[in-house]
Amino acid sequence: SVTIFSTMLARSLKRIGESGVRGFASSSRDPSVKYDFIPAEEKDKGQIMDVALNHFLYTEPHSVALGITKDTGKELIDWIVSKSLHYPFCYTIVHKETGKTIGFRLMSVSHRDHSKDFSPFELDEAKFDEGIQILGTILEGMKHDIWKLQPEANKILRREITFVHKDHQRQGIAKHLLHLGLDFEKLRLAGYDGIQSEASSFANQTLLSKNGYTLLMESQRKEYTRSDGRPVVFHDSTSSMQLFYRNLRK
């Protein structure tokens, strides 16, 4: 009887284990089971700013390596969030169980004719911390060079920031967000030529390279040098900023 009981118990545990694995796999494939993906509006700015300043800046590889904090980075983050919310392409991610915002996707629009670009307010870049100035120089270079690298493009959808809190990563959220709410045919009809992304983390670079984006250029090691000669050191597999592009005009 002990043997029969042991066999029954083993089979029961196996079924539970298989069910658990299937449940986890299903959740991983479809993160909407555990998370709500909500189109972001101006009213959501405060919550997005809170997550960006208190979590994004302290985990994003370039921000960490360059020593950017919520105090030194607040104005720049405010500018990016305000600019992105001007357009209808942003999302917040809410964990259903706790009701907490655990991430977001910010996107904006960029034109060859820069006079058409929306700017929420003027940035006093001369007052920025050196780490932000290094980051800004790299980003501005890529924003400028995209028009040389894509001479046929005039209007581009731009991925500004996609962030998922570290406690909720590896759930398929970033991939789910990649093209969420983006109808490529409607974008083409609205005059968009492509989607641009300056990928600042190794994980994001890998995601884009596997999902139809082409690597156009990347930052050089010499760009990561402080005024006193000290090199900027990354703390993970990230080693550069990479400019990716997905052509919508094919």
Give a verbal description of the structure:
- The chain has helices at 2-29, 45-54, 61-66, 70-84, 130-149, 173-178, 184-189, 202-209, and strands at 35-39, 91-95, 101-111, 155-164, 194-199, 214-218, 242-247.
- The relative contact order is 0.14.
- It is built from 8 helices and 7 strands.
- The chain has a 7-stranded mixed β-sheet, sandwiched between helices.
- It is α+β, with helices and mostly antiparallel strands.
- The longest helix has 28 residues, at 2-29.
- This is N-acetyltransferase domain-containing protein.
- GO terms for molecular function: N-acetyltransferase activity.
- InterPro entries: Acyl_CoA_acyltransferase.
Break the fold down into its secondary structure elements and pairings.
Blueprint: H1 2-29, E1 35-39, H2 45-54, H3 61-66, H4 70-84, E2 91-95, E3 101-111, H5 130-149, E4 155-164, H6 173-178, H7 184-189, E5 194-199, H8 202-209, E6 214-218, E7 242-247
Parallel strand pairs: 4-5
Antiparallel strand pairs: 1-2, 2-3, 3-4, 5-7, 6-7
Helix pairs in contact: 2-4
GO molecular function: N-acetyltransferase activity
InterPro entries: Acyl_CoA_acyltransferase (IPR016181)
Protein name: N-acetyltransferase domain-containing protein
